[in-house]
Amino acid sequence: MKILSIIGARPQFVKEAILQHEINKYDDIEETVVHTGQHFDENMSSVFFDVLKMKKPDYNLGINGMTHGKMTGTMIIEIEKILIKEKPDFLVLYGDTNSTLAGAIAASKLGIKVCHVEAGLRQEPKTMPEEINRVLTDRISNYLFVPSQYGMDNLKRENIVENVYFTGDVMYDIFLKMKPKFDDSLMSNLGLEENNFILMTLHRDFNVDKKETLEEILNQVAKVSRQIPVVFPIHPRTRARVKSFGLEALLENIKILDPIDYLKLMGLTLHCKKVLTDSGGFQKESYFAGKSAVVVMEDTSWRELTDKKINILSSPDKIYDNMMKDASRNFEKNIYGSGDAAKKIVEVLHESVIDK
To answer: Model's pTM, two decimal places?
Structure first.
């Protein structure tokens, strides 16, 4: 049995790391890993290579810095060449990037089984590149591995019901696997008290690329910081916008950090009072850690968390009001499975070959 996995962005490295950990338990599965080059953050990704012994990609295509159409088209061409050479039984794809859609198109045209990990997510507006990628990938996938019941319901409404599996979320697998190694050393370094600080991340273009929006967000956060300390590992994009817009004064009462790795971020998350973020992954990881998040987005693909009032969607001008609300006490467990999603995914693929 031969699997070819495609990764292109930091969250996909995380998901591939835990799936590869399960694949390696089988002597009769061979895996080839292709990195499209869409995005790679050494600071965020290297820990998974080191701790989970993830192998380096077999191919690195170096495709980035293009328009969506050119990037996706170039990826289809290059991925197709590798698929023809490697002849895998399955192509494994993660999430909703251009790399995901390009892989799905290339493999489906060649008659190679497409397996979508994190299938079934839906989000407004429908014009978002990520939403387009995930919807189209689900339509042409042969195996759909779904992280939540919400995702299962979405696919059923769209009449996608064949080879659909509720496996739980591979990100929860990672959280549990790495939890003993979480690093909370920044607590003492920053003089933080247990359950008495806000942990913030912010990087989305719609939040940081317009001066008026970013200024409103930072004004709101500055107001929060007068009530409770705010810790902000600042994304390079956000730091650059703060400087170019002349908003540095709004950060004066906020504890600013350079970007930190996953272990340090989760170490802080376990001890914070609440999270403020526009990250798709972090709003879910805060739930894993038992923390509520205020999500600075119009919509989220993790609606089960907002529907259950665990997380709150917020416009920039309502951040202070939402941060000051009491956190939900209704932390329903196992929304994203039991921490064995990767095991279930590999078992399904292995058994499908054995059954033949």
So the answer is: 0.91
